Amino acid sequence: MKVTSFPKNDHSNGWYNGVGDQPPASVLHGDSTADWVVVGGGFSGLAAARRLGELRPDDRVVLLEAGRIGENASGRNSGFVIDLPHAISQEQPEHDHRQIRVNRMAIAWLAELIEQHQIRCQWSHRGKVHVAATNRGRRNLEVMASRLGGLGEVHELWDAARLKTYLGTDYFNFGLFTPGCILMQPAALVTGLARSMPENVEVYEDSAVVAFDDGPSKILTTAGGSVTTPQVVLSTNGWTPGFGFLKHQLLTMHTFASLTRPLTESEQVALGGEGDWGTIPSTLGATTMRYTQDKRLLIRRSLRHRPDFTIRPDDHDSIRREHEETLKKRFPMVPDVGFEDTWGGVLCMSRNHVPKCGALADGIWAAVCQNGVGAAKGTISGRAVAELAAGEDTDLVADMTAYEDLQRFPPSWITAPVFRAKIAYARLTAGAEA
Question: Using CB atoms within 10 A of its CB, is residue 58 exposed (0-12), middle (13-18) or buried (19+)?
Answer without folding.
Answer: exposed
